[in-house]
Amino acid sequence: MTMLLLDGGPVAPDSQVTRTGGTPLAPTGTPWPACAACAAPLQFLAQIRLGDLPGHADHAPAGVLALFMCANRPGQCAQWSPTAGGNLALLLPDRGLEPVPAPKGAPRELLGLGAVRAAVPARTAPGAATILGRIGGTPDWLQDDETPSCPTCARPMAFVVELAEGPDPVTAMNFGSGRAYAHTCTPCGRAAFLWQC
Questions:
Q1: Going by C-beta distance under 8 Å and a sequence separation of 6 or more, which residues neighbour residue 109?
Q2: What is the pLDDT of residues 70-94, one digit of tens each?
Q3: For the chain, which ranges sit under pLDDT 70?
Q4: Domain extents in the chain
Q5: What pTM was estimated for this model as a whole?
Q6: Cβ(94)–Cβ(60) under 8 Å?
Q7: How do 179-185 and 131-135 pair as beta strands?
Q8: Residue 15: alpha-carbon gap to chain centroid
């Protein structure tokens, strides 16, 4: 089963739900991640609760996927690549998470989107709802299949979420008018994030 990500309206910036924007949650002491290319803070895009994935609760322990991307020098930090360091996907435990403190001296607009999108089952999605992506199922690649391999076990990673940019230019994620894809290897505790246009 596939679940659509719809615009669920504003919620608290540290909400524990599957969402885009707001503040990332992570274990105590987790620093705000930086771009491996330019060293500036990455922009927080989304957190996906893996327990929300269709069928996931039956097969693997719950967790949270946190997605970040460099918005400091668009097009220069290879934020579309799963391995170049211009983006980051963190596979985190489901419990004991707290807001990650913003890095000192960083402009607020680089750190988050400020909008929240809720996960709604595809079969119950209203016809006029704004679809901002989906979780579960298989990726709908815009170009060739780029399923990443786990850097630990070398197996293909499992598809988790596909994200679209959304209608609001102030809060939308920027994937070059394309889509983003996140994958995990739960046994190895690894995750990867990339986008295509």
A1: none
A2: 988 877 899 999 999 999 999 999 8
A3: 1, 52-61, 106-112, 114-129, 166-171
A4: 3-196
A5: 0.88
A6: no
A7: unpaired
A8: 15
